[in-house]
């Protein structure tokens, strides 16, 4: 603890503010007496290991039955075994496992170090999310450090390091947010980008991962390395939509999902998907789906799987 952590890439100012340049782990045992929560956080941290003495076995960890560990490699690499399958965990790779189960993760002899970000969760909703994700994508997952789940996990760590998670309800809220971002990342519809130019693929993936923060056309076009007008023509040629239409489609897909699966207010949903003005969000939603968000939820208009233009 206290050793400096150096990411395997040149960090942005935001990443530096999240990581805070140090290894810190935080435990939230006080949250066990928080009634009414479906997910809770046992611990979160950034850590680094240098010796092969580090080994966590899923069948021998006492007092952790019903817990789920998500551990994401930042630099170096570790190894994991899930039943008979062995994997190396390099940067941008994570393991998501249940305790107890037949797994172990460790620093192998041929690795000098393993720096990782982790969260330990428990509760009935965690198991549901874990089951859905691992049954389809496996226990070893690939996520960019700029992906929404990892940004959320870094934000949880930042808040823990600044003592902003002071009660069980706040811990539960942040845990739920992390799980929702994981589900969104893995289950949101994404197009088949085979044969698309790399710049367009990157722009589309950026929009899927950052739809709530995307600031506009200029930001997305600048990232492509193309001129604004060449980017616009190329984007529409391959996606069939303008950038505004594509971003709106993603946001409406997310609005439908949140209206179906959460009790969040329309105002909160608007803010979560990138609209500062909930009235404007309602106008856009109605223009595309033919009903207001309130009508969609109350009338159980469940036929919309993905928004089309």
What's the pLDDT, averaged over the residues?
Answer: 85
Oligomer: single chain
Strand content: 15-25%
Strand elements, count: 10
Overall 3D shape: globular
What is the H-and-E element order? HEEEEEEEEEHEHHHHHHHHH
- Backbone structural class: alpha+beta
Unreliable runs: 1-21
Strand order of the largest sheet: 1-2-9-4-7-10
Biggest β-sheet strands, sense, barrel: 6 strands, antiparallel
Bin the helical content: 40-55%
Distance between the termini: 52 Å
Number of H/I helices: 11
- Our Rg estimate from Cα atoms comes to 21 Å
Tell me about this structure.
- The chain has 11 helices and 10 strands.
- The longest helix is centred in the middle third of the chain and has 20 residues, at about 170-185.
- With about 300 residues, the chain is of the alpha+beta class.
- Strands 1-2-9-4-7-10 form a 6-stranded antiparallel beta sheet, covered by helices on one side. The chain has a 4-stranded antiparallel beta sheet with strand order 3-8-5-6, with no helix packed on it.
- The N and C termini lie far apart (about 50 Å).
- Helix content is about 40%, strand content about 20%.
- It is globular, with a radius of gyration of 21 Å.
- It has helices at about 15-20, 125-135, 150-160, 170-185, 200-210, 215-225, 230-240, 245-260, 265-270, 280-290, 295-300, and strands at about 25, 40-50, 55, 65-75, 80, 85-90, 95-100, 105, 115-120, 140.
- Helix 2 (about 125-135) packs parallel to helix 4.
- It comes from Paenibacillus hodogayensis.
- It holds the Pfam family HTH_18.
- Keywords: Activator, DNA-binding, Transcription, Transcription regulation.
- This is Helix-turn-helix transcriptional regulator.
- InterPro entries: AraC-bd, AraC_XylS_family_regulators, Homeodomain-like_sf, HTH-like, HTH_AraC, HTH_AraC-typ_CS, Tscrpt_reg_AraC-type_HTH.
């Amino acid at each position: 603890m206290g050793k400096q952590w150096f990411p395997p890439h040149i960090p942005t100012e935001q990443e530096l503010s999240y990581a805070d340049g140090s290894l810190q782990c935080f435990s939230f045992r006080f949250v066990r007496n928080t009634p009414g929560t479906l997910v809770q956080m046992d611990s979160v941290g950034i850590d680094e290991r240098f010796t092969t003495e580090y080994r966590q076995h899923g069948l021998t960890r006492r007092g952790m039955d019903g817990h789920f560990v998500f551990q994401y490699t930042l630099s170096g690499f570790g190894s994991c075994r899930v039943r008979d399958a062995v994997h190396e965990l390099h940067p941008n790779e994570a393991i998501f496992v249940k305790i107890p189960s037949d797994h172990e993760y460790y620093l192998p002899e041929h690795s000098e170090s393993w720096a990782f970000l982790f969260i330990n969760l428990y509760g009935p909703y965690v198991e549901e999310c874990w089951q859905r994700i691992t049954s389809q994508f496996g226990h070893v997952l690939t996520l960019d450090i700029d992906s929404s789940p990892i940004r959320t996990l870094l934000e949880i760590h930042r808040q823990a390091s600044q003592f902003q998670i002071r009660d069980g309800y706040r811990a539960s809220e942040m845990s739920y947010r992390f799980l929702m971002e994981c589900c969104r990342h893995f289950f949101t519809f994404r197009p088949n980008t085979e044969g698309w130019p790399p710049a367009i693929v990157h722009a589309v993936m950026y929009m899927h991962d950052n739809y709530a923060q995307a600031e506009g056309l200029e930001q997305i076009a600048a990232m492509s390395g193309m001129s604004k007008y060449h980017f616009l023509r190329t984007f529409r040629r391959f996606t069939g939509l303008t950038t505004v239409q594509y971003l709106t489609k993603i946001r409406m897909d997310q609005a439908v999902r949140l209206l179906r699966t959460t009790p969040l207010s329309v105002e909160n949903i608007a803010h979560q998907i990138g609209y500062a003005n909930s009235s404007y969000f309602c106008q856009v939603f109605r223009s595309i789906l033919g009903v207001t968000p309130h009508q969609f939820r109350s009338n159980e208009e469940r036929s919309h799987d993905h928004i089309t233009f």
